What does this fold into?
Amino acid sequence: MTDDPMYLEAIDRFAAVIAEAKQLDLKDPTVMALATVGVDGRPSVRMVLMRGFDERGINFFTNVGSRKGQELAANTIAAVCFHWEPLLKQIRIEGAVEMVSDEETDAYWNSRPRDSRIGAWASDQSQPLDRRETLEARVAEFDAKFPGDDIPRPDFWRGYRIIPDRIEFWHSRNARLHDREVYERTANVWTRMRLYP
Ligand SMILES: Cc1cc2nc3c(=O)[nH]c(=O)nc-3n(C[C@H](O)[C@H](O)[C@H](O)COP(=O)(O)O)c2cc1C
It folds into this structure.
């Protein structure tokens, strides 16, 4: 966390765009492409939902044993990219990840629908699955194991926080002369600069 005014300006701008996106008629206005890099230097990318943000960073939740989880364990730097076509805006954020506290993770876990919590237990995310029926049998197994709404959170289901060290705001303009503004932390000082489109 930092109280650098330049960083707080970037977070305010991010919050304003997220608020704009939430006004749109989108199912998942906070979906973002998350890029991670494995030990072999090979990048991988997938969509995940941003589940909250504040000055400490932006959160998402997943299975720590998944491909992304394994890659983040080996290389803690991640990058995300949001795009909202109706807003003509893109935001890119990069930074190191840390684990969200157990308390915050539990709070979000407990807010999820029962089916999603059973599904999280049943899915050995990113591991080979021989057939669909195996997954369905695992769902039935955990459904029977946890009959009520009080379903414990599996240890492998965690929240990650990306602590931004670079935030770029891109806004489409005419003739491909788009606006690009980057906020970047170097040696603990945040600066803002424009980039050619
Ligand atoms: C719109 C959308 C939202 C998603 N949100 C999440 C999410 O929040 N967490 C998650 O683990 N996977 C989410 N997924 C699934 C991931 O894209 C991915 O298939 C999964 O996490 C496994 O990725 P990995 O094998 O690279 O770890 C989402 C997919 C889509 C299309």
